[in-house]
């Protein structure tokens, strides 16, 4: 899982020189007086996902006001499942250790309601992982890397748990959705108190759903890239399931969902989801770069025209992915700058003249802020300075609008809406039409934003304006991370909120919650696979030779390994050698290790 880069003697000497001559640490990048505090916004944005967590392990978690909920999703009889033929139920039971009761607990609620929808969860997951892939330093600046990986792991754990593979590694079936609209929307209470029926809807060869399979594949593969350095065994598991789901989508490129209803209805396009999943799997399998001579699953045949014949000009969202697909290929440098230019063309076409440094774009009604952020996220990956300036203005408009509610991002600034459409944080008296104020501040939630006339109705039942969702916040993170990278901000503001907000558990240890296990066991069918990271070896930063201490010998071994000098470093040693957030084990890690030996780093 580790990519090696050759280093020259001159490069090694330069690394030595940087540690031998101590200097002043580089100054922190602060936002200017005209800039919003993007670092604070990024740090807070991840708490929305915690507010929508489902299952066990939520009590005593990141948020004090949330607790375990819908744990009975873990006791689902296959006889009550929807979307499986008789033979498929038997195959799932065999893959489930012979039990006819499956565990569909965990994951995240989709929005202000408590449906679990694999497609929007996967879209949010991929957007988060993509943000980290592009801008890892932004998460470091926001002290948010561990928090991000905690969320990614929870999502991937759910995807893998509800995907059943046969002995050959092929998908037998997976959970597409938990709870129908009619079941979930019938009661307005906090999730911790709910006991209503929650039907589990499967996708299978008899009822294939290519869009969610493709997006789950993308989520698992993009997350594998996030974990490949510090937890290669877990990354390998994610990629294994991602590739299986991508293959399922390719084999069954149709849409036969039975539980989604009108709000979640898909099927308008499927080849974008299939291509998206395959692209991320190919990228993850090659360690984060495209293989030499790579041909992507969908190619441009002209402006706004793809070889799939599906593209209709829409923006990056859970239902349409081509704009994001072009942006990712452009970011990776595929075919020169052709895909960057295509992404820019698509932003300008969808955003129109409103996507500028002078107005608010995408004010199309329901969830306009989510569309706005989607445009921003793609714009930052075009290399177009005009679009980057427009993206900054759009984010500033969301964080500090000229309306009564200055921020459409909850918890940021001095004025933000308080009557949001979110049952967990704003249960009220059970009737949203009564418009109660929220019981808990929903920190980090991107709300729907202004309507098509530019107005904002701060009403509990005005879901077009006041409801948040997983895909909304996924797009927000995709848009704000590059701003942190370029303009920075003051992370202490977010740290102060964490310390003082009664909603937030400031002592929750995200790093410990997502700790690297030395031995990981995963069961896919009736067989058990055990991956041992390193026998009796222990994790110790900088201890490349696993001697139990950090010494000059570790630097020598790492230098030889990077120079491809035919030395052996164990899996644990490779994990210990990963000391920076560079995208691969390289000279930056060696320089950091040398600084540790010189007493300049810990």
State the main characteristics.
10 strands; mainly alpha; 602 residues; disordered N terminus
Commentary on this structure:
With 602 residues, this protein is mostly helical. Helix content is 41%, strand content 6%. The chain has 22 helices and ten strands. Strands 3, 4, 5 and 6 form a four-stranded antiparallel sheet that branches. It has a two-stranded antiparallel ribbon with strand order 1-2. The relative contact order is 0.14.
Residue runs with pLDDT of under 50 for 5 or more positions: 1-33, 515-537
Average pLDDT rating: 88
Major sheet, described briefly? 4 strands, antiparallel
Class based on secondary structure composition and strand pairing: mainly alpha
Number of DSSP strand runs: 10
Number of helices: 22
Give the radius of gyration: 24 Å
Q: For the record, give the distance between the C-alpha atoms at the N and C termini, rounded to a whole number.
A: 25 Å
The residue fraction in helices comes out at: 40-55%
Shape: globular
Strand content: 5-15%
List the helices and strands and how they pair.
Layout: H1 9-20, H2 38-45, H3 47-51, E1 76-77, H4 86-95, E2 101-102, E3 116-117, H5 118-134, H6 136-141, H7 145-161, E4 163-165, E5 171-178, H8 181-184, E6 200-203, H9 210-227, H10 232-251, H11 271-285, E7 300-302, E8 305-306, H12 322-331, H13 338-351, H14 368-379, H15 385-399, H16 463-466, H17 470-487, H18 491-500, H19 510-513, E9 519-523, E10 528-532, H20 552-562, H21 571-577, H22 587-597
Antiparallel strand pairs: 1-2, 3-5, 4-5, 5-6, 7-8, 9-10
């Amino acid at each position: 899982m580790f990519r090696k880069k050759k280093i020259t003697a001159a490069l090694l000497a330069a690394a030595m020189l940087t540690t031998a001559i101590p200097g002043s640490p580089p100054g922190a990048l602060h936002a200017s007086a005209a800039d919003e505090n993007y670092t604070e916004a990024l740090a807070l944005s991840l708490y929305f996902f915690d507010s929508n967590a489902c299952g066990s392990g939520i009590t005593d978690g990141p948020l004090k006001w949330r607790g375990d909920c819908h744990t009975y999703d873990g006791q689902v009889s296959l006889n009550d499942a929807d979307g499986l033929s008789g033979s498929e139920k038997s195959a799932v039971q065999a893959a489930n250790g012979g039990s006819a009761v499956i565990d569909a607990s965990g994951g995240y609620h989709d929005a202000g309601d408590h449906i679990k929808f694999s497609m929007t969860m996967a879209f949010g997951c991929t957007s988060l992982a993509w943000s980290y892939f592009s801008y890892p330093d932004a998460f470091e600046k926001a002290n948010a890397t561990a928090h991000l990986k905690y969320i990614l792991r929870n999502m991937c754990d759910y995807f893998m748990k509800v995907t059943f593979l046969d002995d050959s590694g092929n998908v037998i079936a997976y959970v597409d959705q938990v709870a129908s609209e009619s079941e979930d929307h019938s009661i307005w209470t906090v999730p911790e108190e709910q006991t209503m029926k929650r039907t589990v809807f499967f996708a299978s060869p008899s009822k294939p759903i290519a869009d969610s399979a493709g997006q789950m594949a993308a989520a698992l593969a993009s997350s594998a890239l996030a974990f490949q350095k510090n937890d290669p065994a877990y990354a390998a598991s994610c990629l294994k399931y991602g590739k299986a789901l991508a293959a399922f989508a390719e084999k069954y490129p149709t849409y036969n969902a039975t539980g989604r209803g009108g709000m979640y209805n898909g099927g308008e396009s499927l080849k974008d989801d299939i291509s998206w999943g395959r692209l991320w799997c190919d990228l993850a399998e090659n360690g984060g770069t495209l293989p030499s001579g790579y041909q992507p699953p969908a190619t441009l045949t002209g402006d706004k025209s793809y070889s799939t014949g599906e593209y209709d000009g829409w923006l990056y969202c859970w239902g349409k992915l081509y704009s994001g697909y072009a942006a990712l290929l452009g970011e990776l440098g595929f075919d020169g700058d052709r895909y960057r230019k295509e992404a820019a063309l698509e932003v300008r076409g969808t955003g129109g003249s409103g996507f500028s440094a002078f107005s608010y774009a995408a004010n199309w009604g329901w969830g306009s802020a989510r569309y706005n952020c989607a445009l921003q996220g793609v714009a930052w990956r075009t290399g177009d300075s005009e679009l980057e300036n427009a993206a900054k203005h759009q984010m500033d408009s969301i964080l500090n609008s000229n309306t009564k509610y200055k921020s459409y991002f909850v918890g940021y600034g001095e004025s933000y809406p308080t009557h949001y459409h979110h049952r967990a944080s704003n249960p009220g008296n059970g009737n949203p039409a009564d418009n109660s104020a929220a019981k808990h501040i929903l920190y980090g939630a991107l709300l729907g934003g202004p309507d098509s006339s530019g107005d904002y109705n701060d009403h509990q039942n005005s879901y077009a304006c006041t409801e948040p969702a997983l895909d909304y916040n996924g797009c927000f993170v995709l848009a704000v991370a590059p701003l942190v990278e370029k303009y920075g901000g003051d992370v202490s503001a977010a740290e102060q909120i964490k310390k003082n907000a009664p909603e937030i558990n400031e002592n929750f240890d995200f790093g410990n919650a997502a700790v690297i296990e030395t031995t990981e066991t995963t069961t896919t069918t009736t067989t058990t696979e055990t991956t041992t990271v390193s026998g009796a070896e222990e994790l110790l930063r900088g201890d490349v030779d696993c001697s139990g201490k950090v010494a000059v010998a570790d630097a020598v071994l790492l230098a030889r390994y990077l120079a491809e000098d035919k030395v052996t470093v164990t899996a644990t040693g490779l994990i210990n050698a990963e000391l920076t957030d560079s995208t691969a084990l390289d000279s930056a890690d060696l320089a950091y290790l040398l600084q540790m030996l010189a007493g300049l780093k810990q």
